[in-house]
Each structure stands twice: as C-alpha cells, then as structure tokens.
Amino acid sequence: MRARFEELDWQHTPMGLISLRRRFDPTVRADVYEIKLDDAYLMSSLFTVAERELARHGLARTPGDELDVVVGGLGLGYTAREALDCHRVRTLTVFEHAEAVISWHERNLLPDTAGLASDSRVCLVCADFFAAATDQAGGPPHNPGRTCDAILLDIDHSPRHLLHRSHADFYTVTGLSAAAAHLRPGGTFAMWSDDAPDADFCAVLDAVFTNVEAKQIWFDNPLTRGRSAATIYLATRR
C-alpha cells in the first residue's frame, strides 16, 4: 500500500523552494498532486478545468492549420496536454523557469500528463517566459525569426498577484506589445487568472489587441462543496 503522503521532489529556485507532492485526499478518494512554492500552493490536480479551458478557448479562436503554439508555464502540464489534443497543433513550445518541473515530466511523475515530454511535437525550454516574450529581437529565442500562432500563459496568480515582482512589466502596454510582436496577425494571446475579470487589465489588453474577452470559467470545488471560478483572458493580434 502506498503512503498517504509523499514529497516526490523539491528544488531551490531564485523564487523560492519549489516542490511536488502527492497525497491521498479522502474527500475525492483519490491521489492529488500539488506544486508548492515555499508555503504557497501553485497548482493542484484537484482543479484543472480552467487550465484545460485556457488551451481549448485559446486555440478555438486561433485560425489556420499546422499551428505553432507557445505555452508559458508548464506546471502539472494540463494546459499543454489539452493543447496537444487539438489536431491542428504542429509544434508546442513550453517555457518553464524551473528545471525541476521539466524533470518531473521527463520522469513521468504525473500520471494524468505522462508522456507529455516525449511527444514529438513538444519542446520543453528551461527559460524565463517573460524575458523571452518581451525580447524584441523577433521570434522566440528557441527559434529566432519565427512567430507563433498562439500564446497560452499560466504562470502568475493574476496580473495583480504575481509570483515575482519582476513579472510586473509584462502586464503593461509595453510588455504586451512586445509579446504581441511574436504572434502572427490574427494570432491569439490567452491567459489564465485566479481572480475575477479585471476591467483595468482588459483596458490594457484593448490598447494592444483586438476582440478582447474576459471569460469566467466555473467548476465544482470538492473542498467547499460549492462552485469556484477562474478567468481566461482572450485577445487577438491586430
């Protein structure tokens, strides 16, 4: 019989101690996988609806076939896994700042997203997404000179609740304009947020993109026995 709680891995990063743990949750009577940064919870396999909807809604509004998609933040892998279920995706480049997180997927420590790292369409890049997205030299640093069809971002809790203060400049007209330069015309910028729709951030998106939408995603919360919501921001390059 497996232990009811197990810390699977941990590693020091510039932002703090990141760790992966597995615990048996009696409420759902299943193993739950969680990522923590120091004492803060980043992701849980109990709550994956919004992460998966980020990919679904983002790619649904992205035109064309043979799509080149960039994901900011690997985490437990649910956004990337959902994106790969879209038959139009040709390449999926995932930027993840923590080497440990990439290692978890390479070692298939996460049952729900096992095999993600070995998919021939996937490239896992250990790099700072925000530095790459605001690099105005043109094209992702992994593939200079090329643009992508969609950017799916799931790193910070929200534009106001950041994992690190260095991310703040991204959520400005200047930062988002730099990111938009890496998108092909008509391409999609989509972002997850744990907060309710933010009118001020929508105004910033409106200054850079077109067809801006803040969509609330509701899901069952087994811990509260009620409903919870996250927000997905969607925008199109002009």
Structural class: alpha/beta
| Whole-number count of domains | 1
SSE run: EEEEHEHEHEHEHEHEE
Sheet having the most strands: 7 strands, mixed
What share of the residues lie within helices? Answer: 10-25%
Order of neighbouring strands in the sheet with most strands: 7-6-5-8-9-11-10
CATH architecture: 3-Layer(aba) Sandwich
Separate helix tally: 6
Report the mean per-residue pLDDT as an integer. 93
CATH class categorisation: Alpha Beta
Q: Strand-residue fraction?
A: 35-45%
**How many distinct beta strands?**
11
Q: What is Rg?
A: 17 Å
CATH evolutionary superfamily? Vaccinia Virus protein VP39
Poorly predicted parts? none
Please provide a written account of the structure.
With 238 residues, the protein is an alpha/beta fold. It has one domain (48-236): Vaccinia Virus protein VP39 (Rossmann fold). It is built from 6 helices and 11 strands. The chain has helices at 49-60, 78-84, 99-106, 129-133, 173-180, 199-208; strands spanning 5-13, 16-25, 30-37, 40-44, 67-72, 89-96, 122-126, 148-153, 183-193, 210-221, 226-236. The strands form 2 sheets. It has a 7-stranded mixed beta sheet. A 4-stranded antiparallel beta sheet has the order 1-2-3-4, with helices on one face. β8, α5 (173-180) and β9 form a beta-alpha-beta unit. α1 packs parallel to α2 and α5 (173-180) crosses α6 (199-208). The longest helix has 12 residues, at 49-60. The chain starts with a strand and ends with a strand.
Layout of helices and strands:
Elements lengths: L4 E9 L2 E10 L4 E8 L2 E5 L4 H12 L6 E6 L5 H7 L4 E8 L2 H8 L15 E5 L2 H5 L14 E6 L19 H8 L2 E11 L5 H10 L1 E12 L4 E11 L2
Parallel strand pairs: 5-6, 5-8, 6-7, 8-9
Antiparallel strand pairs: 1-2, 2-3, 3-4, 9-11, 10-11
Helix pairs in contact: 1-2, 5-6
